[in-house]
Amino acid sequence: MAARPGLDPEAVLQAAIALADREGLEQLSLASLAAALHVKTPSLYNHIKGLPDLKRQLSRRGLILVKDAMVEAVIGKSEDAALLAAGLAYVGFARKQPGLYEAVTAPLTDYEDPELQEAGAQVVSFLLKLLAPYGLSEEDALHVVRGFRSLVHGFASLEGQNGFRMGLDRDESLRRLLQTYLLGLRAGSGRK
């Protein structure tokens, strides 16, 4: 079957992202994607290898974009201000692209995929660079990255599931959470 003119792997991926963000990752199927693209489902196989491949591509793209959002947010900032900006950007990405964020955090069947490993490693490497001024050992810095991810992912997940129903400003709650974490980081690294 010949590929539809104007339809390429990037167009398929963009349509999948839009569909996942609008309907949720669980609602994404090849049939729904084909309908959104006005093609028959078999036509998608000219551009993707199937739904697992598409979800892997979504996860990889999401990792790249969440890192890009954090990089953009920290320009001109350092130490606490940079980590705070990165945390706010991470949650901002989850708010803006909920389906794609879901793909980033969804369990994958192929943990050994080199492209996914590289995209994930770039996120970790970026965060480790932000932590360099704190003078942490490599092991301690990796623990801090895990803690940071746990904080921002937990916040984003609770918010995405409508877990914050009080009338309090969520951005202020997030800022206070990150500032408290940063106070602990400074105390643990011997810096005030």
Automatic annotation (TrEMBL):
Signal peptide: none
Keyword terms: Transcription, Transcription regulation
Annotated Pfam families: TetR_C_33 (PF13305)
Domain annotation HTH-type transcriptional regulator MT1864/Rv1816-like C-terminal: ranges: 83-180
Sequence intervals crossing the membrane: none
InterPro entries given in the database record: Homeodomain-like_sf, MT1864/Rv1816-like_C, Tet_transcr_reg_TetR-rel_C_sf
Top-rank taxon, per record: Bacteria
Alphabetical list of Gene3D superfamilies matching this protein: Homeodomain-like, Tetracycline Repressor, domain 2
Entry keyword annotation includes Nucleus: no
This protein's name: TetR/AcrR family transcriptional regulator
